[in-house]
Design brief:
about 450 residues, rod-shaped
């Protein structure tokens, strides 16, 4: 009887131990266990990660008990956990991250006893069959100083397909600046990354390099040319009196007629006057600069010349009228009366002088022809002379004004027909220049 009680006790204890073993915190996978390990994704970049999932079944086909421990190892990269515990769903998982090395990472899962194991691999970076290719272009490939070019990198997989969006491409350049400045751009949905190169003021070749993962770096060249800017200069007004002012405007463009931008220094030079600001003006964002020309005390043709870096000079002229003090008329004292159908023509000259009796250039002189006054000493400006006309010398253009040359002289031809002077024994020529400066000269008719 005692023997049977002892036997029943031993059987009870054995069953209890078995039950407690199955429900313990870290049950051991039984012999005959099968493991499966998977990685998602199976290929990562050198800054990426993959989720590693391990599952197992007992010999009877049921999942491993929760808490069963699985050892994990890898030949490349870093595992967040190297000992995993099976969860209620019969699986365990961790993360594999790149450690900067490239190649195939072999991940091995094994039971604590080592009776069962399974493997999977994750490609970190690229290998000979997966290495991507970088295609590069620059638009445009030639720029001037401070102009920009768009650098385009298209990333293709080994099978020529485009990489997906969000992949990091890094750029650097041998000269000029990149935007963004850190040179880091991610691909769009077309596998393309774009960055802007802005040239500096040095002629030569800017080489831009693009890098992506394990792909061979690729480059593209942008030629930076010292192309001369083009200047357009204007003055308003273009005719002023001595000591008066004219507004000067300069527009600076590149060879594509695009404004050169702000803070470019334009040098100014002037003649027969001064400019303000003196010597140098700066462009605004529209490539525009302004100055003021002030005429001196001498009449003539003033000028303002602008130069921007290696541009051709651009010059505008301003006519400076000097105050007239007197006029000397140079005309013959008599002429033979014209006959029907045979008009006569003779020159009428006028020299304009200043207060120092120096000739004045660029003065507008007005000419008129009238009947002689009763005293025969001047003009009766209320009585004209038929159809008598002043003309440009050597031509037939009718006009009543002329501009004095460098000798202060202006000349027009006077044409008279017989009917213009019927009943007259003399005529009178009047010349005026400016306010109140008038000269008259009677001419006898023979």
């Amino acid at each position: 009887m005692r023997y049977h009680r002892s036997l029943r006790y031993l059987v009870f204890v054995s069953l209890l131990v078995a039950v407690l073993g199955c429900d313990s915190a870290n049950p051991v996978a039984p012999a005959g266990t099968s493991l499966l390990v998977t990685a998602n994704p199976a290929r990562i970049q050198i800054d990426g990660f993959s989720t590693i999932v391990v599952s197992g079944t007992r010999p009877d086909g049921n999942p491993l008990f929760p808490g069963t421990q699985i050892n994990l190892s890898t030949t490349l990269g870093d595992l967040t956990d190297t000992v995993l515990s099976v969860g209620d769903d019969g699986t365990a998982q961790t993360i594999l991250r790149s450690d900067g090395r490239t190649g195939d990472a072999m991940i091995t899962a094994a039971t604590q006893t080592g009776d069962a194991s399974a493997e999977t691999s994750v490609l970190i970076g690229e290998n000979d069959t997966t290495t991507p290719v970088i295609e590069m272009t620059a638009q445009p490939a030639q720029v001037g100083f401070f102009e920009s070019s768009t650098i385009i990198a298209v990333i293709r997989n080994a099978d020529n397909s485009l990489v997906g969006p969000g992949n990091l491409v890094t750029f650097d350049t041998t000269r000029g600046t990149l935007t963004p400045a850190n040179g880091r751009v991610r691909t769009d949905g077309q596998g393309t990354a774009e960055i802007t190169l802005t040239a500096d003021d040095r002629p030569g070749t800017a080489t831009v390099t693009a890098r992506f993962g394990s792909a061979a770096a690729n480059t593209v060249d942008v030629e930076v040319e010292g192309r001369a800017p083009v200047l357009f200069i204007s003055a308003n007004p273009t005719v002023i009196d001595t000591t008066e002012q004219s507004a000067i405007e300069i527009l600076a463009r590149d060879d594509n007629n695009v404004p050169v931008g702000a803070n470019r220094e334009i040098q100014l030079f002037s003649d027969l006057g001064t400019v303000e600001p003196a010597s140098v003006v700066r462009t605004d964002s529209a490539g525009r600069a302004t100055a003021t020309f002030t005429a001196g005390s001498i009449g003539g043709t003033g000028s303002v010349t602008a130069i921007l870096e290696n541009s051709d000079p651009a010059t505008v002229t301003i006519t400076i009228r000097q105050d007239a003090a007197s006029i000397i008329i140079n005309v013959q004292g008599q002429f033979t009366r014209p006959t029907a159908g045979s008009p006569i023509e003779f020159p009428v000259g006028a020299q304009v002088l200043d207060a120092e009796n120096d000739p004045i250039a660029n003065i507008v002189v007005s000419f008129g022809v009238f009947q002689t006054n009763a005293a025969g000493t001047g003009c009766n400006t209320s009585a004209g002379v038929g159809g008598a006309e002043f003309q440009v010398p050597g031509g037939s253009t009718v006009t009543t004004t002329a501009i004095t040359n460098s000798n202060g002289t202006a000349t027009l031809d006077l044409e008279i027909e017989d009917t213009d002077v019927t009943g007259l024994n003399s005529i009178c020529v009047q010349v005026s220049a400016g306010a109140g400066i008038v000269a008259q000269a009677p001419i006898n008719i023979l």
